[in-house]
Design goal:
- 36% of the residues lie in helices and 29% in strands.
- Strands 1-5-2-6-7 form a 5-stranded antiparallel β-sheet. It has a two-stranded antiparallel sheet with strand order 3-4.
- The chain is globular and about 75 Å long.
Length: 196
């Protein structure tokens, strides 16, 4: 009898603490769910590409889309895809022979703040390899015979111009612009050992 009484007493005295703990836990989950971001990926992070499983496992796939504004997607050394900063794209568009930016196709994911911070580390934001910017992505959906388009704001990683350098490397500036980096393209050209 005394053992059951002691358990009831402990349970009764712990009840307010347990309620607070439960409330804190669920409010923390709600906060984390509210801290979601949309990420647009265009290269080796896409499905069936080299880094997808390592960095986007647990991300919620939202669908495919294309940049609302033309962008300069190029393939650099080792088959690495780079989205050049908009300023470098506009600096070449006045020349007739300059490669033209295109609407870039990619994938959209909903990710947590923690995943976004991990992506920043992977992309080398602090090291100056990439910058993260918010862009407009055009998403199409088909219902019956009609197609509707909407704009989705999403974060995207751009190749960073190195400090002390006024522009992007000339080999990238003059590279062919592509509309999509595919898994097939990656198989032909990507060399992860040299990339790292």
């Amino acid at each position: 009898f005394s053992e059951h009484y002691a358990r009831a007493l402990v349970t009764k005295t712990q009840a307010p603490f347990l309620r607070q703990l439960r409330n804190w836990w669920f409010s923390d989950i709600e906060k984390r769910e509210q801290q979601q971001h949309v990420l647009f990926v265009y290269g080796t992070l896409k499905r069936n590409c080299h880094w997808h499983d390592k960095y986007l496992t647990g991300a919620h796939f939202l669908g495919v889309g294309r940049t609302a504004q033309p962008q300069s997607l190029v393939i650099g050394a080792c088959g690495v895809p780079y989205l050049l900063p908009t300023s470098s794209s506009s600096s070449t568009k006045d020349h007739d022979d300059a490669p033209r930016p295109k609407h870039v196709r990619g994938e959209l994911y909903r990710i947590s703040t923690e995943m976004l911070q991990g992506m920043d580390d992977y992309e080398g934001i602090r090291k100056g390899h990439y910058t993260r910017e918010e862009i407009d992505v055009e998403v199409s959906s088909v219902a019956g015979s009609s197609e509707t388009k909407r704009i989705q704001k999403a974060f995207c990683y751009f190749y960073a111009v190195k400090p002390g350098v006024s522009t992007v490397d000339a080999s990238l500036l003059n590279a062919e612009r592509i509309a999509e980096y595919t898994a097939e393209e990656q198989k032909k050209r990507y060399n992860p050992i040299h990339h790292i």
